[in-house]
Amino acid sequence: MKVEEKNTLSKLFDAYGGLLSEGQREIMASYINYDLTVTEIAENLGVSRQAIKDSVTKAEKKLLSFEAYLYRP
């Protein structure tokens, strides 16, 4: 992920992270705030890398959709 994409995701997480599920918040906090890799998060939580990747992707889409919904013309 590019630095500017990570910055955007971080800002969205700060603004809308409370709207995510508890599990998604935990994963995204590890991914964004603690800069852990998908592999590191998976090992910490005892789940597969694919499960974490899917969760990050879904959470990212949700955060982007919250922003788009609130700021649509």
What kind of oligomer do you see?
Answer: single chain
Largest sheet: none
Distance between the termini: 28 Å
Strand content: under 5%
Low-confidence stretches: none
Helix content: over 70%
Given the structure, what is the number of helices?
4
Mean pLDDT: 94
Order of helices and strands: HHHH
Q: What structural class do the secondary elements suggest?
A: mainly alpha
Q: Compute the number of strand runs.
A: 0
Gross morphology is: globular
Rg (CA only) = 12 Å
Detailed description of the structure:
With 73 residues, the protein is mainly alpha-helical. It has helices spanning 3-16, 22-33, 38-45, 49-70. The model has no long low-confidence stretch (mean pLDDT 94). The longest helix is centred in the last third of the chain and has 22 residues, at 49-70. It is 77% helix and 0% strand.
